[in-house]
Amino acid sequence: MSVAIADKGTREPERADDGGWTCVIEPEGRRFDLRLGELWHYRDLVYLFVRRDFVAQYKQTILGPAWHLIQPLLTTIMFTVVFGRIAGLPTDGAPAFLFYMAGTVLWGYFSGVLTSVSGTFTANAAIFGKVYFPRLAVPVAVLLSKLLAFGVQFAFLLCFLAYFRLRGAHVAPNAWVLLTPVLLVLMAALGLGLGVIVSALTTRYRDLAVVVTFGVQLLMFATPVIYPMSALPEPYRTWMALNPIAPVMEAFRYAWLGAGEASLAQLGLGAVVTGVIVLGGVLLFNRVERTFMDTV
Amino acid sequence: MSAIAIRIENLSKHYRLGQIGGGTLREDLHRWWAGVRGQPDPASTVDDALVGGPSDGELWALSDVSLDVRQGEVLGIVGRNGAGKSTLLKVLSRITAPTSGVVKIRGRVGSLLEVGTGFHPELTGRENIYLNGAILGMRRAEIDRRMDEIVDFAGVQRFLETPVKRYSSGMYVRLAFAVAAHLEPEILIVDEVLAVGDAQFQKKCIGKMSEVGKGGRTVLFVSHNMPAVIKLCTRCLVMRDGRITLDGTAEQAVERYLGDVDESATVPLHSRRDRTGNGAIRFTSFGLQNAAAVPVARARTGAPVVLALRYESSGQSACRNVHVAIAVRGHFDEHLFHLSTGSEKHDFDEVGASGTFCCELPFVALQPGRYPIDIFCAVNGVTADWVRHAGMLEVDAGDFFGSGRMPPVEQGPFLVHHRWRCEAPEVDDGVAQA
Asked: Which ipTM was obtained for this model?
């Protein structure tokens, strides 16, 4: 379906026959055509979806948006006690609290995007079945609303960072912080790509809905979130290179805490893997978007 | 001649029934492996295997439909369930893609949707107006311009900042409809099936449609409501098995449709496929009985009759909380009256795994004629089986009034017992006493 919706005011004058169609519906769309122009036309909808996610989530709660801060804070405290104090995992010399908080906040963004995006088709089946709008508006809105939450949490992290630094702890933000936007894009792209693949497949295989919820938990342990890369013994380390989130996580912590190892080569490899996943996701999404109502 | 608003060229839509049912990866792998080894599809049903042939388990919901719709036409589409009407609308509103063929559209397409699609209960009335409008394709500036009108129309000024979950159902409906009514697309799509069960909404839809049609915009209208079709549509299609079988005036189309319906009533009930429901209970046959429970072919005006619905349940055990209803329709397929376990006493607390639901009419108060009936059954509030035009209630002439005479048929289908008398002018009390 290649589509161009003309704005009401600028519609072409009506002609007797061919030409001047505002919309042509065909069985096969172009595979890699994301129809971003159309998505742009629906940007107000994306904005409203973001707003809905953000506003509706904490309506009728006492603490409201404060939950965005409480969640990572409690998780960080728990991780610090369990993995830092009890299990005694190393943190590459960074204060344990900051180490776990950086991991939790960044991982929270990734897992949030992945789980929400993967429910795109099943959670919205009722509305997708009745009205057309670019389906991509839903995952894109998820991406943005999670980014907003991440922004708040990240600011929270910076507060703690400043506090620890004033107290004289060993934290050393360095030039790598400039790469933070790139890291976020990589993380978002990966979450979106994987989420979109899962969402497209769940329209036929409901098994995946189950897999995602605990799969994300398992994936966290397969990623250096609660331990540094340097703590891994050799055979595992090589395998870890294949996990595209691992270098992002390490680079993020290295940039802001000065702990761990950042490697451009590893990041590059991760970016390639991410690119392939996003490409596959787009392909699948474009196919499923057109006919998923027949299988849901 | 006005310009063409919609051009449909050789449109087809194909469903593979077997694949819709299969929902897990394991089944698909199994199926794929069987295919590799050249064995029959393990997911195909026994029926398919016995009959064979490529058409089994496949359904052409639309086959080779071509059509031009001109601007300003109010086009009705009628047909039995499963004829492809809704599929056609779904393709036109881009909810699902066609298998082959091309549709070209000039102008913005909008649908009247089921009440509250896309409403979020936690958001306020104002927020939901924006959200709902955006889902329907409106820009924010456009909604801003119409905000006052929408709020006025819905009559919710005082509750604009209240979450819609606190709205009464009437307010909710009014707000949802107000947004849709102010969308103003060049091409309006109305699928009555989407609005089943909400009489108020249907009425508003029809009002809005005639207004839109008069405004020179194009309307596509799918309905089972024949009087509405005749009243509103300037042109009408009859669809059957995914094809257009007639393209003409509304009157011609309704006549043909009712002919199709008559024909479908001759298919045995248990093998009818155009039914909805989860199948917890299925009707297997419909018949008439006289007062002595002897099957009869026709009822007689004024005489008692029993409408007997045989059923089977999918499980072995009894079903609880069973609601059964029969809708009797008239000449133009309009609803005449409704016989339901809900209005008479109460629903059945418990029924056996199979049996017969009997609905007794002490006397038939209808003119002689043929009356299509719909039958419906719900278990625990969930639709179990619903067959439209499941059978005919044929009524022969009888002596309803005990006078041997009948009112003329064109005065209406119903017969009502009544008594006439003539009273002299009231006598003044004072005079009488004097």
From this structure: 0.76
